[in-house]
Protein 1
Amino acid sequence: MPTLTWLVTGCSSGFGEEFVHSILARGDRVIATGRNAASRLQHFKDTGATIMDLDVTAPQADLDKKMAEALAIHGGIDVLVNNAGYIESGPVEELTPERLLRQYNTNVFGQVNLTRSILPHYREKRAGILAFIGSQAGWQGEAGTTCYCSSKFALEVESLQKEIEVFGIKCIIFEPGFYRTKAFSAQNFHFNVPRIPEYAEFNKGLRGFIEACDKNQPGDPTKFAERVIDVIKGEGLAEGKDMPIRLPLGSDGLEVMRRKCLETLKLCEEWEKLIVSTDYPVEKQDEKSS
């Protein structure tokens, strides 16, 4: 495969940082982006990566300008990795509209807006890959993280793929389980300020779970980045396979997807009679259409 140019968001730590190192190790070019890049991305200074300041929550016009700058660096971009994100926590009743909007601005709207910025370039060259970093939380909700989980459910890209495939553009959402990144650190996991006494024990338990889970997650973030690159480049374990529209990564993520699929099939079977009972009778449907 020819040398690819990648643009990756959220590179200050976690998956973003791993992507940069792994992409460069494959001989590809990478534009590493993040907020306050001059200070937060200095660890890439001597790696060969291009560093760019980019806040995905910026207005669309600003993102369009940033994308134009990025496209000029290497004469184009082949892969956009929408990776930036964080976790808002707390029960729904304590969730403020401001916190919900902040979560969606980063995890959903920012990714959609940046995708809009690159699509004219992809359409013109009739090629390009959009990679979204979702989560098993986009398949299974968890108490205390409704805000985050709903943002990952919103990120599913099936409609987008159907709109852009005619232009030769591909998109995929990777859905990792729990990986040993800084996702549960204070920087990326935002605990709510308790406001309702009845949720005090719940919030205490949630905080305890996160603290116990941090640094004990089963997934290796370096291997995650490597497998994502394998899939996009058609190499390694992905060689000879067609790129799917979604892919769980990690044994826990696989279990969540598999269980959800089986539960959904069971529901369809058990409730089929009631589910289809709301259709018009065939003959009446024919009469209405005539």
Note: The domain at 5-249 is CATH 3.40.50.720 (Rossmann fold).
Protein 2
Amino acid sequence: MHTYHVLIIGSGFGGQCAAVNLLKAGFDDFRILERREFFGGTWCQNTYPGAAVDVPSPLYSLSFAPYRWSQMFAGQAELRRYTEQVIERFGLRERVELQAEVERVAWDEAEKRWAVHTRAKGSFYAQFLVNATGPLSQPVIPRFPGQDRFQGKTFHTNHWDHSYDYRGKRVAIVGSGASAAQVIPAIAPQVEHLHVFQRTPHWVLPRADRTFGRFQRWLLGLKPAYTLLRWLIYWQFETRVIAFKYSKPAIRLVQQQALRFLKRQVPDPVLRQKLTPDFTIGCKRVLVSSTYYPALNRANVTLHNREQGIASIDETGINTEDDRHIEVDLIVWSTGYDATDGVISYPVSGKNAVQLREVWAEYPRAYLGTSLPDFPNLFIVTGPNTGIGHTSALFIIESQMNYILDCIRTVQANGLRSIEVRHDAERTYTAMIHREMQRTVWKSGGCHSWYQSRSGHVIAMFPGFSFSYHRLTRALKPADHIFS
């Protein structure tokens, strides 16, 4: 029987952060379950051409694991090297169970533990369960008539097939979000023709990237210098919340900057009109790229807007809404993830057989985006309303660890077996989140985005400053919890 004190599901930055924090707190009886055949999460999985982070690398890193980055916005290969360094430095590789895809989990009230059933590795048991599968782990591929008839190659950016040579081919990219904005400039010079199918345009701001010289990289190896740079970047980015929530004049200024950037990079008025959003900047994820617009200007790139979108697919290509047939060799789905309603993809059964999918039937919610009534000793890393649109997600993950470790330590120190958030505490917290959300651009900016669940509630984002969230998670509030 595989029994542990703590089980962590997922081996990306969330799982790694949970594991290292457990080790630092003196808890070494844990196991990481990873569904794939490799350790590492997002930056080992997403290997599409052009993949890179859109938050400055010194901030998009774990506070306890500084790194000598080669550039301000690291590419996928360097992020993978960083991930592997964290894994090796803290000895996490021997603590992972690979190809352990979770099928279902259930709380055993008599034993006060979680039973985690996997597809290929049997069952695991633990007093505490940390879900760190991440919000961007379930790719979404839309359905079109005739899709299965297509005789060419297809894949999602999340599963890029490097055995397929796209050079000199006719390629369609479906989607125009963050991953598409990275793929398009990377492959456009190498393909015969690239067709980009855009449902709605995104706001784009320039990417202030730079390569670090030898001396600067040496400085990044000094913890005081690294910490200072992190905080300088952090506070610069934190001011963006003022525009997203508190100041309409501020957001108008940012939008004017984006419009000037669009006009400067896209001289063709027809193409520029197709690329001009009709919603307030920030309502959808803002793209950060200095190469996306120039790629769309190329003679071998055609942008199709909603009116010219996909009507159906046949054996040789795409039939558009304006009655054209476009022959393509490859269709790349750059269509994102189920980041709201699909936060946890496997069935979860809590106390008295309460089902998480039923609790979340209206919309996903959780106390501090982390714990739920009727689900003792269960913690969700990057759960509902913990996303952050202006700074590093890793800052939020590390803040969650304050609360999670506090919960585990409190149960352990007092000879208890479980901790569970009270219903009224969760309701009060959720009401506050959605009350504050009304003031944000994500709710009132005039768009429908992946930040929203099917219910229309904004589920992906935290409606305020990241330091406000950090303050909420800094210390456990015993009165908000039930202990047993």
Note: The two ends are 25 Å apart (CA to CA).
